[in-house]
Amino acid sequence: MPLTEPTQSGVALPAEAVADAARSGAQTAPAPGVPAAPRLHSELFYFAFRNWKFVLGSAVVLACVAIAIVGPWLTDHPPLAFDGPTDQPPSSEYWFGTTSYGQDVYSQFVHGLRAAFLVGGLGGGIAWVLGVGVGFTAGYRGGWIDDVLNMLTNVVLVIPTLAILIIVAAYLQVQSYTTEAVIIGLTSWPWAARAVRSQTFSLKTREFVEVARLSGRSTRQVIATELAPNMSSYLLMTFILLFGGAILIGASLDFLGLGPSESISLGLMMNNAFLASALLLGSWWWFLPPGLGIVAIVGGLYVMNVGLDEVFNPKLREL
Amino acid sequence: MSLRVDDLTVYYRSLRGDVKAVDGATFAIRDGEIMGLAGESGCGKSSLGKSLIRMDARMKHMRGRVELDGQELPIADDAKMNAFRFRRVSIVPQYSMSALTPTRKVGTVARELLESRGEGFDEVRPELRRRLELVGLSADVLDRYPIELSGGMKQRTVMVLSTLLDPSLLIADEITSALDVSSQRAVGELLVEFRDRGFVKSMIVITHDLAILYQIADTILVMYAGKLAEKAPAETIVGAPRHPYTRLLISSLPEVGVRFDETRLAGIPGKPPSLLSPPTGCRFRDRCPLAFAKCEEEPPFIELEPGHEVACWKAAA
Amino acid sequence: MLSLDGVSKVYKVGTFGGKRLRAVHGVSFDVAPGEVVSLIGESGSGKSTIGRMVLGLSRVTEGTITFDGQDVSRLERHRLHAYYGDVQGVFQDPFSSYNPIFKADRVLTLVKGFFPGVGRREWEDKVEAALHAVRLDPGTCLGKYPHQLSGGQLQRLLVARALLLDIKLLVADEIISMLDASTRIDVLNLLGDLKARGLGVLFITHDLSLGNYISDRTVILRHGEIDEAGATTKVFGNPLHPYTRMLVSSVPQLHTKWDSAAPKTVAALPESDAAARLVEVEPDHLVAAAGVEGGP
Both B71 and B214 in a single domain? Predict the structure, then answer.
C-alpha cells in the first residue's frame, strides 16, 4: 500500500500574497480573548470588597480585634479583682455589670478577647504549619512517604481530640494560654494536612511542575516556588478556619474548667457564670457578652471564609 | 428541507461583556444529509451546535429562526425546548465518555432518560438491545456500571442512547477528538451507518478535523470567528475551495505522503479576532492575503454555484 | 547520540504495590544528531512514558538509556542537572505548562541557574536570540501572562527556553495536538528548521500524518512494544506489520476515502515475558517477529 505520492491538490494561493501576509501577521499583536484569567491582585480586591459575606465577616472580626486591643486601656479595673459590688447589672461605672464575686465583667470580657486571639493565632498557626508541611510533603512525594504520613494523619484525626485534650490538660495542669494553644495546635492539624495533600496531588500532575523539574528545581523548591503560590488562596482560607477552630476548642476547654485558672478567658467567664448559677439569678450581663463574643469572632471568621471562597473561585459567584 | 437556520445569532454572557459566538448564521440541511461543521477553536461551531438544542444556560439567543421539518424550534425558550430535545433534536456531547452518571447502571440511565420524555422503557427495550448489538455491544451493557466499560464502548453507548427515539437532527460535538485513530474510524463509520439505517434523518458533525469530515460528511460548512465562511459538498471544499480561509486551511494540513523535506507547508499567521469586540467587515481581513478595500464591508454569505455558498468579495468577483 | 537499549518500565499498583503494570517492554532505538525520530502510538502505547524516562522524570525499571556514551538511566542531582543542559522537553498542553500566576517569560528565567556568570545585558541578548530563533517577537511575548498569549506562542516560548540552553536533543511530547490546525504546521516547520541546525528531536505523537511530515525515522509502538521501526519513507511506504497497516489505513485522508477492505482492528499479542524480537526485513526497516511470521 505505497503512500509516497503527495496528494495535495493545487490549492495554494499566489506565493507572494502568502509571504506578505506572513510578514504582516508576525507583527500583529495578539488580542486577548475571554480566557479563564488567573485572579490578579487588582481583580481580587475588586471582588473581595463587593462580596457582602467577606465584608461583613471581616468587619465583625476586625471590630473584635479593635476591642481586644483598645478595650483594656479603657478600664482601670483589673479583670480578676474582687473590688466591686456583686451582681450589679450594667451601669455607668461598670459597663457590663459585675459578677457574683464583684469582678468587672467588661474588664474580663476585653481581656478574654485578647486571650481568645492569642489561642487562635498561636494554636491555629501551629496547626497550620504542621498541616501544610505534612500535606505538601505527602502530596508531592507520594509513594511510601505518603503512605506513612497518611497513616499518621489518620491516626491523629481519628483520636477524639477533645477527650485527649481533657486528659492532657487535666494531667499537665495548663498554666498559661500559650501552653493551651500549643496543645490545640498539635492536635488539630490533620484535616488541613488532608486538604493540602489532595490539592497538591492535583497540582502535581500539571505540566508546569515538570518544566520546573526540567529546570533543575528540587522538591523543596518546587513546593515553595511553584505549588504554594498557586494554592495561596487555599492556604489562607485553611489558616482562617484553623484560627477559628482553635478559638472554639480553647473556649470549650476553658468552659469545662480545664484551661488556665490564673487568668481570664471568654470560656472561663462562661464557666464561672454557669457555676455561680448566673442563669437562675438572671445575671444575663455575665454570660451573654462572652457567649456573643465567641459567636461573633468564630462566626465572623467562617462567614469571611465563605466570602473569600466566592472571591477566589468565580464559579461560585452568582452572575 | 429538513433544517433551516435563518440569521441565528447567539451570544454568551461573560463578566467582560457579550461574547459574540455566532453571528447571523443562515444555512439549510436536507433530509438525510450529513453536514460537517468545521473550524478552529473559538470559531463558534460548538456554540452553533449547542444553540440548536439549547444546552448551555449562559447562551443568550439574540435573534434568528430555526425550523426543523417545517416546524419552528423554540430555541429561545429553555422550557419549551424540552419537548423537542432527545425526540426531534438530539446531541452526542463532547466528552460523551463522561456523560454517563458513574453511580448508576447504564440501563437505569437509559430508563430515566426515556421516562423523562414520557416513553415507556419496556416498550423501547427490544429496540435498544437491537441497536446495542448493531454497534457491537452486547445487551448486558445495560446491567453494567460505566466504569466497567472501555472508552470506546461508552462512546458507542452514548451514541445509541442519544438516537434511541430516532431524532430528525443529531448534533455530534467533537466526538472523535479524544479517540485513537482506529476508534475514530469506527465511530465515523458508525455515524454514517446510523444515517443509512434511518435512526437519524440528518446530522451535524462538529469537529476541527477536516480530513474525517471528508470521509463521512456530504457537505462541509466552515466557520471563522463566529461567521459562516463557506459551505459546499465535501469534495468541493477539499478539492476546489473558494474562501481564502478554507484554501489556506486545506493547504496547511499534512497528509500521509507529504514530507517537510520535499514540500514545506505554510500555516496562517496571526490569531482569530477576539469575539468580545470583533472587527467590522470581514473578520478574516487581518490575516487574509487577498484582502482589499471592499473587505471593510462585511461580505454576504451567498450562493456562487448550486450548493456552494461563500462569504467573500474576492471569491464572488 | 541518544540510545535506548531494552528499556522497560514497570509500575507497581494496588495497595502496597501488589500488582505490576508493564507500560514499556524492551524498547530499543537510537536518535542521531540532527535527526527527528517519531515515536508513534495510540493511547496506552507507552510513548509518553518513554519520553519521560528519556527526560529523567521517571525511573527506568530495566535496560539502559545512553546519551553521548554516558549512561543516563538513573541520574540524580548534579549529573541530572548537567544532563538538562543537553536534553529538554516540551509537553502537550501549553496552558498547563505555565504556572498561571506568573508571567510567561518566567520559564526563561527559570533556566538562568545554568548560566552562573552571565550578566544582565548578556542574558537579555541570549533571550532575544532564542526568541528570534523560534520566530517570536520579544515585544509581543515578554512581560505577558500565559492567558494573554496563544497556544502556538506558548509552545514556541518553551522551545526558545530549550534553545537558550543550547540543547542537543528535544523531547517533543504531542506538542502540537492542542494547537489549531493553522498554527500546527508553523511549529512543525520550526522543528524542521532546528533539525537542519543539528538539533535531534524525539517527536512523540499519535498522528501519523505529522510523523510522516517531519521525521526521518519512525518507531511504531503498541502496548509498550515496538511493532515496526525504520526510515519513515520505508515504514510508511511499505508497512509490513498488520498493526502499522491498520493504522495507516485508518488515518482519514483529504482526497481519498477509507479503504473498506482494509482491516479495522488487529488482534492483541499474548502477554509474554520476553520482549518482541525485531527482524530486519530491509536496510533500516525492522518489524516485530510476530508481525512478519503472521503476515500475509
Answer: yes
CA–CA distance from A200 to each of A135, A140, A219, A232, A236 (Å)? 8, 6, 12, 12, 15
Domain contains B191: no
Instruction: Please report whether residue C296 resides in a domain.
Output: no
CATH of the domain at C179: 3.40.50.300
- Does A86 reside within a domain? no
- Residue A123's pLDDT is 93
Question: With an 8 Å Cβ cutoff, are A215 and C145 in contact?
Answer: no
C24: in domain: yes
Contact B289 A30 (CB under 8 A): no
Helices (H), C20-76: 47-54
Reported as a pLDDT band with limits 50, 70 and 90, residue C169 is very high
> Based on the domain organization, do B177 and B67 belong to the same domain?
yes
Which of C294, C198, C203, C168 is closest to C240 using CA atoms? C294
Q: Which of residues 227-246 of C touch A (CB under 8 A)?
A: 233, 236-239, 245
In a domain, B292, yes or no: yes
Is residue A33 in some structural domain?
Answer: no
pLDDT at position A127, please?
95
B16/A319 Cα distance (integer angstroms): 12
Q: Where are the beta strands (DSSP E) in C42-194?
A: 62-67, 70-71, 87-90, 169-173
Chain B's closest residue to C260, CA to CA, is B189
Residues B151 and B246 in one domain: no
Residues of C in contact with B269 (CB under 8 A): 186
Mean pLDDT of C65-85: 87
Both B218 and B276 in one domain: the answer is: yes
User: What are C102-149's pLDDT values in tens digits?
Assistant: 888 889 988 888 888 888 899 999 899 999 888 888 888 888 888 888
| Residues of chain C positioned with their CB less than 8 A from the CB of B254 | 185, 188, 209-210, 212-213
d(CA A145, CA A143): 5
Query: Which residue of chain A comes nearest to B41, CA vs CA?
Result: A33
Beta strands in chain B (DSSP E): 3-14, 17-29, 34-38, 59-68, 71-72, 89-92, 169-173, 202-207, 219-224, 227-233, 302-305, 308-310
- Of B141, B166, B191, the domain-final residue: B166
Instruction: Identify all chain A residues contacting B286, using CB atoms and an 8 Å cutoff.
Output: 25, 28
SS3 of A197-244? HHHHHHHHCCHHHHHHHHCCCCHHHHHHHHHHHHCHHHHHHHHHHHHH
Question: Does some domain include residue C122?
Answer: no
**How do the pLDDT tens digits run along chain B, 317 residues long?**
589 999 999 998 877 788 888 999 999 999 999 999 999 888 889 889 989 988 777 888 889 999 998 888 888 888 888 888 888 899 998 777 777 888 889 889 889 888 888 888 888 889 999 999 888 888 888 898 988 887 778 888 999 999 988 999 999 998 887 778 888 888 899 999 999 998 999 999 999 889 999 999 999 999 999 999 999 999 999 989 999 999 998 888 887 778 888 888 888 888 888 888 888 889 998 888 888 888 888 889 989 999 899 999 888 77
Cβ-based contacts of A3 with chain C (< 8 Å): 236-237, 248
Confirm whether A185 is domain-assigned.
yes
Identify the closest residue of chain C to A233 by CA–CA distance.
C101
Chain C residues touching chain B at CB-CB below 8 Å = 42-43, 150, 180-186, 188-189, 192, 206-210, 212-214, 232-233, 236, 246-248, 250-255, 257-258, 264-265
Q: Is residue B29 part of a domain?
A: yes
Structural domain of B204? 3-88+170-183+200-316
